[in-house]
Protein backbone atom coordinates (compact mmCIF):
# COMPACT_ATOMS: atom_id res chain seq x y z
CA UNK A 1 0.00 0.00 0.00
CA UNK A 2 1.19 3.53 -0.75
CA UNK A 3 2.64 5.44 2.19
CA UNK A 4 1.13 8.91 1.96
CA UNK A 5 1.46 10.84 5.21
CA UNK A 6 0.47 14.40 6.06
CA UNK A 7 3.39 16.09 7.79
CA UNK A 8 3.57 19.43 9.60
CA UNK A 9 2.42 21.28 6.49
CA UNK A 10 0.65 18.79 4.22
CA UNK A 11 1.89 15.94 2.04
CA UNK A 12 5.03 16.30 -0.04
CA UNK A 13 6.88 13.87 -2.27
CA UNK A 14 9.31 13.53 -5.12
CA UNK A 15 7.54 13.94 -8.46
CA UNK A 16 7.23 10.81 -10.63
CA UNK A 17 8.31 8.67 -7.66
CA UNK A 18 5.75 9.49 -4.94
CA UNK A 19 3.99 12.60 -6.13
CA UNK A 20 2.15 11.21 -9.16
CA UNK A 21 -1.16 12.05 -10.82
CA UNK A 22 -2.63 8.85 -9.42
CA UNK A 23 -1.56 9.61 -5.86
CA UNK A 24 -2.78 13.20 -6.14
CA UNK A 25 -6.20 11.87 -7.11
CA UNK A 26 -6.25 9.57 -4.08
CA UNK A 27 -5.41 12.46 -1.74
CA UNK A 28 -7.99 14.79 -3.27
CA UNK A 29 -10.60 12.02 -3.06
CA UNK A 30 -9.84 11.74 0.65
CA UNK A 31 -10.25 15.51 1.05
CA UNK A 32 -13.54 15.37 -0.87
CA UNK A 33 -14.81 12.57 1.37
CA UNK A 34 -13.80 14.57 4.45
CA UNK A 35 -15.78 17.57 3.16
CA UNK A 36 -19.05 15.77 2.41
CA UNK A 37 -20.74 16.94 5.62
CA UNK A 38 -19.14 20.37 5.74
CA UNK A 39 -21.72 23.18 6.19
CA UNK A 40 -19.98 25.29 3.52
CA UNK A 41 -19.64 22.48 1.02
CA UNK A 42 -22.07 24.12 -1.43
CA UNK A 43 -19.83 27.20 -1.58
CA UNK A 44 -17.02 25.13 -3.01
CA UNK A 45 -13.27 24.83 -2.58
CA UNK A 46 -10.48 27.18 -3.68
CA UNK A 47 -7.72 25.48 -5.66
CA UNK A 48 -4.31 27.16 -5.86
CA UNK A 49 -0.98 26.09 -7.29
CA UNK A 50 2.61 27.32 -7.40
CA UNK A 51 5.23 27.58 -10.19
CA UNK A 52 6.61 24.07 -9.85
CA UNK A 53 6.74 21.61 -12.73
CA UNK A 54 3.23 20.41 -13.65
CA UNK A 55 1.56 22.20 -10.71
CA UNK A 56 -1.23 23.62 -12.89
CA UNK A 57 -1.91 20.12 -14.27
CA UNK A 58 -2.07 18.59 -10.79
CA UNK A 59 -4.55 21.36 -9.95
CA UNK A 60 -6.72 20.34 -12.91
CA UNK A 61 -6.76 16.76 -11.60
CA UNK A 62 -8.00 18.11 -8.27
CA UNK A 63 -10.84 19.89 -10.10
CA UNK A 64 -11.90 16.63 -11.76
CA UNK A 65 -11.99 14.67 -8.50
CA UNK A 66 -13.80 17.36 -6.53
CA UNK A 67 -16.40 17.69 -9.31
CA UNK A 68 -16.82 13.91 -9.31
CA UNK A 69 -17.73 14.21 -5.65
CA UNK A 70 -20.22 17.03 -6.19
CA UNK A 71 -17.94 19.81 -4.93
CA UNK A 72 -17.47 23.05 -6.84
CA UNK A 73 -13.92 24.27 -7.54
CA UNK A 74 -12.79 27.88 -7.80
CA UNK A 75 -9.43 27.54 -9.56
CA UNK A 76 -6.91 30.38 -9.57
CA UNK A 77 -6.08 31.66 -13.05
CA UNK A 78 -2.30 31.72 -12.52
CA UNK A 79 0.35 30.48 -10.09
CA UNK A 80 -0.69 31.90 -6.73
CA UNK A 81 0.97 32.23 -3.30
CA UNK A 82 -0.31 30.02 -0.50
CA UNK A 83 -1.42 33.01 1.65
CA UNK A 84 -3.34 34.46 -1.32
CA UNK A 85 -5.08 31.12 -1.87
CA UNK A 86 -5.89 30.99 1.85
CA UNK A 87 -7.25 34.54 1.85
CA UNK A 88 -9.55 33.64 -1.06
CA UNK A 89 -11.31 31.22 1.30
CA UNK A 90 -12.53 34.17 3.33
CA UNK A 91 -13.48 36.21 0.24
CA UNK A 92 -15.65 33.41 -1.13
CA UNK A 93 -16.83 31.91 2.17
CA UNK A 94 -15.45 28.62 0.88
CA UNK A 95 -15.21 25.32 2.73
CA UNK A 96 -11.43 25.41 2.40
CA UNK A 97 -8.65 25.24 -0.17
CA UNK A 98 -6.42 22.72 -1.85
CA UNK A 99 -2.97 24.17 -2.53
CA UNK A 100 -0.55 22.40 -4.88
CA UNK A 101 2.90 23.36 -3.57
CA UNK A 102 6.05 22.04 -1.97
CA UNK A 103 6.86 25.52 -0.62
CA UNK A 104 10.65 25.90 -0.16
CA UNK A 105 11.56 22.25 -0.85
CA UNK A 106 13.95 21.26 -3.67
CA UNK A 107 12.69 21.46 -7.29
CA UNK A 108 12.01 17.74 -7.64
CA UNK A 109 9.32 17.90 -4.93
CA UNK A 110 5.68 18.86 -5.09
CA UNK A 111 2.93 18.65 -2.53
CA UNK A 112 -0.65 19.21 -1.41
CA UNK A 113 -1.87 21.32 1.49
CA UNK A 114 -5.46 21.32 2.67
CA UNK A 115 -6.37 24.68 4.19
CA UNK A 116 -9.61 24.57 6.26
CA UNK A 117 -12.39 27.17 6.22
CA UNK A 118 -10.65 29.33 8.85
CA UNK A 119 -7.90 30.06 6.27
CA UNK A 120 -5.00 28.75 8.34
CA UNK A 121 -2.97 25.52 8.38
CA UNK A 122 -4.91 22.35 9.15
CA UNK A 123 -4.57 21.11 12.71
CA UNK A 124 -3.82 17.44 13.47
CA UNK A 125 -7.47 16.55 14.15
CA UNK A 126 -8.27 17.56 10.55
CA UNK A 127 -5.27 15.92 8.88
CA UNK A 128 -5.87 12.75 10.94
CA UNK A 129 -9.42 12.56 9.58
CA UNK A 130 -8.19 13.11 6.02
CA UNK A 131 -5.60 10.35 6.51
CA UNK A 132 -8.37 7.98 7.67
CA UNK A 133 -10.33 8.78 4.52
CA UNK A 134 -7.15 8.32 2.50
CA UNK A 135 -6.51 4.86 3.93
CA UNK A 136 -10.07 3.89 2.98
CA UNK A 137 -9.61 5.29 -0.53
CA UNK A 138 -6.32 3.46 -0.99
CA UNK A 139 -7.88 0.22 0.22
CA UNK A 140 -10.81 0.45 -2.21
CA UNK A 141 -8.92 2.14 -5.04
CA UNK A 142 -12.07 4.14 -5.83
CA UNK A 143 -11.81 7.72 -7.04
CA UNK A 144 -14.82 9.67 -8.34
CA UNK A 145 -14.02 11.88 -11.32
CA UNK A 146 -15.69 14.18 -13.85
CA UNK A 147 -14.18 15.65 -17.00
CA UNK A 148 -13.27 19.33 -16.99
CA UNK A 149 -15.80 19.97 -19.76
CA UNK A 150 -18.60 18.29 -17.81
CA UNK A 151 -17.56 20.09 -14.63
CA UNK A 152 -17.81 23.44 -16.41
CA UNK A 153 -21.16 22.61 -17.99
CA UNK A 154 -22.60 21.49 -14.65
CA UNK A 155 -21.30 24.49 -12.70
CA UNK A 156 -18.66 22.62 -10.71
CA UNK A 157 -15.68 24.55 -12.06
CA UNK A 158 -14.69 28.10 -12.83
CA UNK A 159 -11.50 30.14 -12.79
CA UNK A 160 -10.96 33.44 -10.97
CA UNK A 161 -8.24 35.99 -10.27
CA UNK A 162 -7.45 36.10 -6.53
CA UNK A 163 -4.96 38.98 -6.75
CA UNK A 164 -7.25 42.07 -6.65
CA UNK A 165 -9.13 41.05 -3.48
CA UNK A 166 -5.91 40.09 -1.72
CA UNK A 167 -4.11 43.30 -2.68
CA UNK A 168 -7.04 45.42 -1.51
CA UNK A 169 -6.98 43.65 1.85
CA UNK A 170 -3.22 43.68 2.36
CA UNK A 171 -2.97 47.41 1.60
CA UNK A 172 -5.32 48.05 4.51
CA UNK A 173 -2.84 46.34 6.86
CA UNK A 174 0.18 48.41 5.77
CA UNK A 175 1.02 52.10 6.14
CA UNK A 176 1.60 52.70 2.45
CA UNK A 177 1.60 56.49 2.94
CA UNK A 178 4.69 56.24 5.12
CA UNK A 179 6.37 53.90 2.63
CA UNK A 180 5.53 56.29 -0.21
CA UNK A 181 6.92 59.34 1.62
CA UNK A 182 10.17 57.53 2.44
CA UNK A 183 10.92 57.06 -1.28
CA UNK A 184 12.53 53.70 -0.58
CA UNK A 185 14.68 51.86 -3.09
CA UNK A 186 13.89 48.15 -2.89
CA UNK A 187 15.17 45.01 -4.58
CA UNK A 188 12.50 42.29 -4.76
CA UNK A 189 13.31 38.60 -5.28
CA UNK A 190 10.33 36.24 -5.67
CA UNK A 191 12.81 33.38 -6.30
CA UNK A 192 11.06 32.26 -9.52
CA UNK A 193 8.04 31.33 -7.43
CA UNK A 194 4.35 32.05 -7.03
CA UNK A 195 5.00 35.47 -5.46
CA UNK A 196 5.90 37.03 -8.82
CA UNK A 197 4.12 40.39 -9.41
CA UNK A 198 2.92 40.90 -5.85
CA UNK A 199 5.55 42.87 -3.94
CA UNK A 200 6.89 44.78 -6.93
CA UNK A 201 3.42 45.92 -8.00
CA UNK A 202 2.42 47.06 -4.51
CA UNK A 203 5.68 48.96 -4.00
CA UNK A 204 5.53 50.55 -7.45
CA UNK A 205 1.96 51.68 -6.77
CA UNK A 206 3.29 53.28 -3.56
CA UNK A 207 5.89 55.20 -5.56
CA UNK A 208 8.95 53.21 -4.49
CA UNK A 209 11.93 52.63 -6.75
CA UNK A 210 11.81 48.89 -7.38
CA UNK A 211 14.21 46.47 -9.03
CA UNK A 212 12.96 42.90 -9.38
CA UNK A 213 15.15 39.84 -9.95
CA UNK A 214 14.27 36.18 -10.56
CA UNK A 215 10.75 37.21 -11.58
CA UNK A 216 9.91 34.57 -14.16
CA UNK A 217 8.85 30.97 -13.89
CA UNK A 218 11.69 28.50 -13.53
CA UNK A 219 10.65 25.11 -12.09
CA UNK A 220 14.34 24.46 -11.29
CA UNK A 221 14.53 27.69 -9.28
CA UNK A 222 17.78 28.79 -10.84
CA UNK A 223 19.47 25.54 -9.88
CA UNK A 224 18.92 26.08 -6.16
CA UNK A 225 16.12 25.79 -3.61
CA UNK A 226 13.38 28.46 -3.34
CA UNK A 227 14.33 28.99 0.29
CA UNK A 228 15.02 32.61 1.34
CA UNK A 229 18.01 31.82 3.57
CA UNK A 230 21.31 33.68 3.90
CA UNK A 231 23.05 30.88 2.02
CA UNK A 232 20.72 31.10 -1.00
CA UNK A 233 20.12 34.87 -1.22
CA UNK A 234 23.63 35.79 -2.41
CA UNK A 235 22.36 37.37 -5.64
CA UNK A 236 19.86 39.50 -3.76
CA UNK A 237 22.58 40.65 -1.36
CA UNK A 238 24.84 41.60 -4.29
CA UNK A 239 22.09 43.60 -6.00
CA UNK A 240 21.18 45.45 -2.81
CA UNK A 241 24.79 46.54 -2.41
CA UNK A 242 25.31 47.32 -6.10
CA UNK A 243 22.13 49.41 -6.34
CA UNK A 244 22.55 51.15 -2.98
CA UNK A 245 19.08 49.89 -2.04
CA UNK A 246 17.40 50.38 1.33
CA UNK A 247 16.08 46.81 1.46
CA UNK A 248 16.19 43.44 -0.27
CA UNK A 249 13.00 41.44 0.12
CA UNK A 250 12.65 37.78 -0.89
CA UNK A 251 9.79 35.27 -0.93
CA UNK A 252 10.06 31.49 -0.95
CA UNK A 253 8.50 29.23 -3.59
CA UNK A 254 4.91 29.75 -2.48
CA UNK A 255 5.49 33.15 -0.82
CA UNK A 256 4.51 32.11 2.69
CA UNK A 257 8.04 32.69 4.01
CA UNK A 258 10.33 35.69 3.72
CA UNK A 259 13.98 36.66 3.51
CA UNK A 260 15.23 40.14 4.43
CA UNK A 261 18.49 41.86 3.43
CA UNK A 262 19.44 45.19 5.05
CA UNK A 263 21.08 48.04 3.13
CA UNK A 264 24.57 46.89 4.19
CA UNK A 265 23.95 43.43 2.71
CA UNK A 266 23.37 41.75 6.06
CA UNK A 267 20.78 38.98 6.20
CA UNK A 268 18.20 39.65 8.92
CA UNK A 269 17.00 36.34 10.33
CA UNK A 270 13.38 35.66 11.22
CA UNK A 271 13.94 35.99 14.97
CA UNK A 272 15.11 39.58 14.47
CA UNK A 273 12.27 40.31 12.07
CA UNK A 274 9.76 39.09 14.64
CA UNK A 275 11.00 41.17 17.53
CA UNK A 276 11.38 44.25 15.32
CA UNK A 277 7.77 43.78 14.26
CA UNK A 278 6.43 43.23 17.79
CA UNK A 279 8.37 46.31 18.93
CA UNK A 280 6.82 48.30 16.06
CA UNK A 281 3.31 47.03 16.79
CA UNK A 282 3.59 47.89 20.48
CA UNK A 283 5.58 51.11 20.31
CA UNK A 284 4.44 52.76 17.06
CA UNK A 285 1.07 51.28 16.17
CA UNK A 286 0.08 51.09 19.86
CA UNK A 287 -1.37 47.61 19.38
CA UNK A 288 -2.01 45.77 22.62
CA UNK A 289 -2.04 42.02 23.02
CA UNK A 290 0.07 38.91 23.51
CA UNK A 291 2.41 37.25 21.04
CA UNK A 292 2.51 33.60 19.97
CA UNK A 293 5.81 31.98 19.09
CA UNK A 294 7.08 28.45 18.54
CA UNK A 295 9.23 26.71 21.13
CA UNK A 296 12.27 27.34 18.88
CA UNK A 297 11.73 31.09 18.51
CA UNK A 298 13.43 34.01 20.30
CA UNK A 299 12.55 34.97 23.88
CA UNK A 300 13.12 38.63 23.03
CA UNK A 301 9.38 38.51 22.29
CA UNK A 302 8.79 37.40 25.90
CA UNK A 303 10.76 40.36 27.23
CA UNK A 304 8.65 42.78 25.20
CA UNK A 305 5.36 41.12 26.12
CA UNK A 306 6.26 41.19 29.81
CA UNK A 307 6.99 44.95 29.72
CA UNK A 308 3.44 45.58 28.48
CA UNK A 309 1.82 43.14 30.90
CA UNK A 310 1.38 40.24 28.48
CA UNK A 311 2.74 36.74 28.23
CA UNK A 312 4.22 35.09 25.16
CA UNK A 313 2.41 31.87 24.27
CA UNK A 314 4.81 29.04 23.43
CA UNK A 315 3.64 26.48 20.87
CA UNK A 316 5.06 23.36 19.27
CA UNK A 317 6.91 23.87 15.99
CA UNK A 318 4.48 24.39 13.09
CA UNK A 319 2.52 27.47 12.13
CA UNK A 320 -0.76 25.61 12.58
CA UNK A 321 -0.31 25.95 16.36
CA UNK A 322 0.59 29.63 16.08
CA UNK A 323 -2.41 30.21 13.84
CA UNK A 324 -4.62 28.54 16.44
CA UNK A 325 -3.27 30.91 19.12
CA UNK A 326 -4.09 33.87 16.90
CA UNK A 327 -7.61 32.62 16.09
CA UNK A 328 -8.62 31.43 19.52
CA UNK A 329 -6.61 33.52 21.98
CA UNK A 330 -6.16 36.82 20.14
CA UNK A 331 -2.40 37.16 19.72
CA UNK A 332 -1.52 40.36 17.84
CA UNK A 333 1.53 38.67 16.28
CA UNK A 334 2.39 35.06 15.63
CA UNK A 335 5.68 33.81 14.25
CA UNK A 336 8.38 31.17 14.09
CA UNK A 337 12.14 31.25 13.60
CA UNK A 338 11.87 29.35 10.32
CA UNK A 339 10.41 32.42 8.61
CA UNK A 340 6.63 32.52 9.00
CA UNK A 341 4.47 35.23 10.55
CA UNK A 342 1.06 36.87 10.55
CA UNK A 343 -0.61 39.68 12.48
CA UNK A 344 -4.04 40.39 13.96
CA UNK A 345 -6.50 41.43 11.26
CA UNK A 346 -5.01 39.05 8.69
CA UNK A 347 -5.58 35.34 8.12
CA UNK A 348 -3.98 32.88 10.61
CA UNK A 349 -1.61 31.64 7.89
CA UNK A 350 2.02 32.61 7.45
CA UNK A 351 2.44 35.26 4.77
CA UNK A 352 5.79 36.31 3.32
CA UNK A 353 4.23 39.12 1.29
CA UNK A 354 2.78 40.69 4.45
CA UNK A 355 6.10 40.25 6.29
CA UNK A 356 8.08 41.97 3.52
CA UNK A 357 5.63 44.88 3.37
CA UNK A 358 5.78 45.32 7.14
CA UNK A 359 9.59 45.45 7.02
CA UNK A 360 9.33 48.26 4.47
CA UNK A 361 6.88 50.08 6.76
CA UNK A 362 9.25 49.70 9.70
CA UNK A 363 12.21 50.94 7.63
CA UNK A 364 10.18 53.93 6.44
CA UNK A 365 8.69 55.00 9.78
CA UNK A 366 11.75 54.52 11.98
CA UNK A 367 14.04 56.20 9.45
CA UNK A 368 16.89 53.86 10.30
CA UNK A 369 18.47 50.81 8.75
CA UNK A 370 17.14 47.53 10.12
CA UNK A 371 20.43 46.97 11.96
CA UNK A 372 19.99 50.42 13.50
CA UNK A 373 16.52 49.46 14.74
CA UNK A 374 17.87 46.18 16.14
CA UNK A 375 20.54 48.11 18.08
CA UNK A 376 17.85 50.42 19.45
CA UNK A 377 15.82 47.41 20.65
CA UNK A 378 18.85 45.77 22.28
CA UNK A 379 19.75 49.02 24.03
CA UNK A 380 16.29 48.91 25.60
CA UNK A 381 15.76 45.18 26.19
CA UNK A 382 19.28 43.77 26.36
CA UNK A 383 21.58 41.93 23.98
CA UNK A 384 20.45 38.60 22.62
CA UNK A 385 21.87 36.25 20.00
CA UNK A 386 20.69 32.92 18.61
CA UNK A 387 21.73 30.22 16.18
CA UNK A 388 20.62 26.81 14.96
CA UNK A 389 23.00 23.93 14.38
CA UNK A 390 22.06 20.82 12.39
CA UNK A 391 24.07 17.82 13.57
CA UNK A 392 24.03 14.59 11.55
CA UNK A 393 24.23 11.25 13.36
CA UNK A 394 23.65 7.63 12.36
CA UNK A 395 20.31 5.95 13.13
CA UNK A 396 21.66 3.98 16.09
CA UNK A 397 23.10 7.13 17.66
CA UNK A 398 19.87 8.99 17.03
CA UNK A 399 17.90 6.40 19.01
CA UNK A 400 20.41 6.55 21.88
CA UNK A 401 20.30 10.35 22.08
CA UNK A 402 16.49 10.45 21.94
CA UNK A 403 16.36 8.04 24.88
CA UNK A 404 18.87 10.11 26.84
CA UNK A 405 16.95 13.31 26.14
CA UNK A 406 13.74 11.81 27.53
CA UNK A 407 15.53 10.97 30.78
CA UNK A 408 17.54 14.22 30.96
CA UNK A 409 16.50 16.34 33.95
CA UNK A 410 19.44 18.58 34.88
CA UNK A 411 19.39 21.02 37.82
CA UNK A 412 22.06 23.12 36.10
CA UNK A 413 23.50 23.46 32.61
CA UNK A 414 26.56 25.36 31.38
CA UNK A 415 27.06 26.72 34.90
CA UNK A 416 23.54 28.13 35.15
CA UNK A 417 20.57 26.94 37.21
CA UNK A 418 17.90 25.28 35.06
CA UNK A 419 14.60 27.04 35.75
CA UNK A 420 12.43 25.26 33.20
CA UNK A 421 12.57 22.00 31.29
CA UNK A 422 10.12 21.79 28.39
CA UNK A 423 9.54 18.60 26.37
CA UNK A 424 6.61 19.94 24.34
CA UNK A 425 8.54 19.49 21.08
CA UNK A 426 12.05 18.20 21.68
CA UNK A 427 13.92 18.97 24.90
CA UNK A 428 14.22 22.64 25.84
CA UNK A 429 16.43 23.75 28.73
CA UNK A 430 15.84 27.29 30.02
CA UNK A 431 18.50 28.75 32.33
CA UNK A 432 18.18 31.35 35.11
CA UNK A 433 19.85 34.11 33.08
CA UNK A 434 17.36 33.70 30.21
CA UNK A 435 19.64 31.69 27.94
CA UNK A 436 18.21 28.45 26.57
CA UNK A 437 18.78 25.54 24.25
CA UNK A 438 16.36 23.26 22.39
CA UNK A 439 17.39 19.87 21.02
CA UNK A 440 14.94 18.47 18.46
CA UNK A 441 15.35 15.25 16.46
CA UNK A 442 14.31 15.44 12.83
CA UNK A 443 11.25 13.38 12.06
CA UNK A 444 12.56 12.29 8.66
CA UNK A 445 16.37 12.47 8.77
CA UNK A 446 19.17 11.12 11.01
CA UNK A 447 19.96 14.52 12.49
CA UNK A 448 19.29 16.80 15.43
CA UNK A 449 18.50 20.48 15.32
CA UNK A 450 20.12 22.35 18.17
CA UNK A 451 18.73 25.82 18.85
CA UNK A 452 20.58 28.12 21.25
CA UNK A 453 19.77 31.63 22.47
CA UNK A 454 22.27 33.42 24.68
CA UNK A 455 23.20 36.77 26.19
CA UNK A 456 26.56 36.98 24.42
CA UNK A 457 28.28 35.44 21.41
CA UNK A 458 30.72 33.69 23.74
CA UNK A 459 27.93 32.16 25.84
CA UNK A 460 26.19 30.91 22.68
CA UNK A 461 29.31 28.96 21.65
CA UNK A 462 29.71 27.61 25.20
CA UNK A 463 26.12 26.28 25.28
CA UNK A 464 26.50 24.71 21.83
CA UNK A 465 29.68 22.98 23.01
CA UNK A 466 27.98 21.81 26.21
CA UNK A 467 25.10 20.23 24.25
CA UNK A 468 27.45 18.41 21.87
CA UNK A 469 29.61 17.11 24.71
CA UNK A 470 26.69 16.14 26.96
CA UNK A 471 25.04 13.96 24.32
CA UNK A 472 28.18 12.81 22.48
CA UNK A 473 27.20 14.32 19.14
Automatic annotation (TrEMBL):
Matches recorded under PROSITE patterns: PGM_PMM
Keywords noted in UniProt: Isomerase, Magnesium, Metal-binding, Phosphoprotein
Reactions performed catalytically: alpha-D-glucose 1-phosphate = alpha-D-glucose 6-phosphate
Domain Alpha-D-phosphohexomutase alpha/beta/alpha: 4-136, 165-265, 270-381
Cofactors required: Mg(2+)
Enzyme Commission (EC) number: 5.4.2.2
Protein's pathway: Glycolipid metabolism; diglucosyl-diacylglycerol biosynthesis; Lipid metabolism
Protein name: Phosphoglucomutase
Amino acid sequence: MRNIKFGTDGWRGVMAKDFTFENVKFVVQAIASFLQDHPLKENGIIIGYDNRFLSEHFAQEAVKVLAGNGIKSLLVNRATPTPVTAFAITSHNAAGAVMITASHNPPEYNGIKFIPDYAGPALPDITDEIEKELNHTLATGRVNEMTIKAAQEQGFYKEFDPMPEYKKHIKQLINLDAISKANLKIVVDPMFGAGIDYLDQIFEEAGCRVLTINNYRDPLFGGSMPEPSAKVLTKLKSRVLAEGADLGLALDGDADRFGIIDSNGEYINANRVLYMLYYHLLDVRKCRGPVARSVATTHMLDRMAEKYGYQAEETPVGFKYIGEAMRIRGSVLGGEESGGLSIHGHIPEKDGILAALLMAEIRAIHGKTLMGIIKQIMDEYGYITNERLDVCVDEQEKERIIKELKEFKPSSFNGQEVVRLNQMDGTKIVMADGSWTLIRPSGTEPLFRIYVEANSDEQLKEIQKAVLETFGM
